[in-house]
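Service request form, structural biology core

Requester: graduate student, group of Dr. S.
Request type: structure prediction, single chain
Budget code: on file
Notes: please return the result as structure tokens.

Sequence provided:
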Amino acid sequence: MRRLLYTLALYVLVPGALWHLWRRSRKQPEYLQHVGERFGRYSFEVATPVIWIHAVSVGETRAAEPLVKALAERHPDHRILLTHTTPTGRATGEQLFGDRVSRAYLPYDLPFAVNRFLDHFRPRAGVLMETEIWFNVAHTCAVRDIPLFLVNARLSERSARGYGRLAVLTKAALLSLRGIAAQTEADAGRLTALGAGSIEITGNLKFDVAPGAEMEARGRELRRLFGPSRPILLAASTREGEEALVLDAFEQIAVAGTLLVIVPRHPQRFDEVARLFDALGLKWQRRSTGEPVSADTRVVLGDSMGEMFAYYGACDAAFIGGSLLPLGGQNLIEACAMGKPVLIGPHTFNFSEATDLAVEAGAALRVADPAQLAAQAARLLTDTGLRSTMSTAAAAFAATHRGATARTVQLIETRWSRAP
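Core staff response, request fulfilled:
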């Protein structure tokens, strides 16, 4: 009965969902592409057996990279189908994998759409990344005996409270999964409290994401364009309202020649951030032009996709966005993997354990506000000894926590053909 009421509520919300797509398309026209897929209608088929992995947006897609590669290598007779919810996630999948995987939108969690999706692709197994618990998807896969896994699972206290409001549905969905691979003990504990059954702690797949030689070379090229001798502070994955705070901090950094590189989290905000620079009368350039940065340019807008590792490679220190405001923070693992000192704000509840461990390891420093961000950034940009110590600690921290991919693949393959 509760799932029926949930489904009826979804039907009521369909007009609002379509309105949302139209509204988002005003900044990002891709939202109006492939709309039929959101209702289970697809224009392509996959002839070989399918392993389906759902990665909502950019972060989940990047985290899925080592898992996609491992499953494709171990099951060459299967085709990886990568599903998304956002156009930026879909674009990231294309950048990372090209034609080696198939891509589509996972339909809304409506029974008829879910059944169309499963009828069309007939997946042999499904994998949901991180915090995705879809009640009708989970139920329908269980009825059809399609093994469904939740991997790289993370659940903040805030998200746990949200799922707790739908406790009966959440418990039923979690119990229908063939297996759950949690990032941390805390995540496993919150999932268990919601009713999950068998959970294994496998670690965070993001530690296994490697930059590769091409991205390292691109980082060196970016450094050349930015200015080899200039101190470079990167503000990565900034969210709405944060750029102004970062710029306030930047004005307080009394380190001659410092270049600030701001990379907004969401591409649809590139032009919005550019307008902020203009309003403040800043001398700035776009990364997308590919031109060398002039000596009097103070700020670079990182308006390119798929270059996060390169941005980290080009900087001296990195501030991780989403953390100066109560937005939950963003992933700092890529910065650590590139051996860069990290600055992080007070709000990191979406990545709490990784952030705490990085701070404990000496790879990251917490700042409370823009004033502290300015002070710690200036310290890092001028103290080569501190910067070197933190760089070494960051690389060691990232290396120590690798191995989640192998553990996750083992869980999936062990339980794939076994009843829950």
